[in-house]
Amino acid sequence: MYALKSNSLMGDPPVSISQLIAKRLKEGLDQISFRDWLQGSAIAVPVPKSSLAKPGSLWVPLMLAEAMREAGLVSDVVACLKRKTPLKKSATSAPGERSTVFEHYDSIEVEKTLLAPSEILLIDDIITRGATMLGCANCLQEAFPGVPIRGFAAIRTISNEEDFSSLLAPCLGKISLRGDQSFRNP
């Protein structure tokens, strides 16, 4: 997780962890249940950070999306989601203090730099409960009605250690909204 958050170099020869993830996805595509999403036709849209964007700052979802484009897993990368107002960082917030889907939705705007995509794949580095992903998806759905929108996260948090099976355990899941809380399964 720390290597991903800092987009560290790994391996021999060293490559960024974003490139390594894209390479592993490409190599293992036949075994991934969501392989149809990674056939190169989707537009990758990186999820914005919880803070306001600053020039030159590290934006791991963008780097991951670009590595996926280089690997041929998505057709293009369009950074059309912008944070209008900063939110608390989920990673450092207690479970009851994390931003809701509605707070994410209200704090994000879609820049119409994207022309009628056939499908959108939201890209994030880490997914906890899915509030950011769901907020972003709803903003994009408003801007592009009828366009299929899916999400990809390189790492998913696991609350129950008995559910942990492997570092490399790609899965297909669903994020749902109950009241003002998001829930991810698995």
Describe this structure in words.
The chain is of the alpha/beta class. It has five helices and ten strands. Helix 2 packs across helix 3. The chain is globular and about 45 Å long.
Shape: globular
Q: What is the radius of gyration computed over CA atoms, rounded to a whole number of angstroms? A: 16 Å
Number of helices: 5
Main sheet attributes: strand count, strand direction, barrel closure: 4 strands, parallel
Beta-strand content bin: 15-25%
How would you classify the helix and strand content by structural class?
alpha/beta
Terminal residue distance: 18 Å
Poorly predicted tracts of residues: none
Order of helices and strands: HEEHEHEEHEEHEEE
Strand arrangement across the biggest beta sheet: 4-3-7-8
Number of strands: 10
* Mean pLDDT score: 89
Residues in helix, % = 10-25%
Name some characteristics of this structure:
two-stranded antiparallel ribbon; 186 residues; 23% strand; alpha/beta
Describe the SSE topology:
Layout: H1 2-5, E1 9-10, E2 15-16, H2 17-27, E3 43-46, H3 60-70, E4 76-77, E5 81-83, H4 101-107, E6 108-110, E7 120-127, H5 131-143, E8 149-156, E9 174-178, E10 181-185
Helix pairs in contact: 2-3, 4-5
